[in-house]
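Good morning C.,

I know you're traveling, so I'll keep this short. The sequence:
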Amino acid sequence: MTLQFSIDSLEGLEPGIQSLYVEKDGKFFLDVTGHEKTEDKDKIPLSRLNQEIEKRKLSESQLKEFADSFIESVPEEMRDLIPDLPPGQKIKWIQNATQKGLFNQQAPDGIDTKRPAGKTPADFKNMRPQAIMAQGYGKQKK
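The tokens, ready to paste straight into the viewer:
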């Protein structure tokens, strides 16, 4: 059997249960603590709440603009690497990626990348074998 919080009369209830009820304004209420309503002094006024909501929206929009400016600093071909995160986390991710050199342009590493560009190779077609060997021995490498 469940107890009701308020009833109109105590008729039909057992004497032990009747002692749990208290009469107020012609009705009988279960005598318990902790059910009282909170007073209005604990509530935030609606105008103050709306001001705080507007402040938060403004802050979030400014943070999004700041994150977008960070995205502009990333090279165009690498922007698809940026994950879809909230603006604050996106800024932190871009900063970490930049510090680790993810967006730095690196020269391709291959066979011809270390070849001196200004020198043309010698023409060995009309040279004698001794002259060809002298070409290699006559230079000192630094």
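Safe travels,
E.
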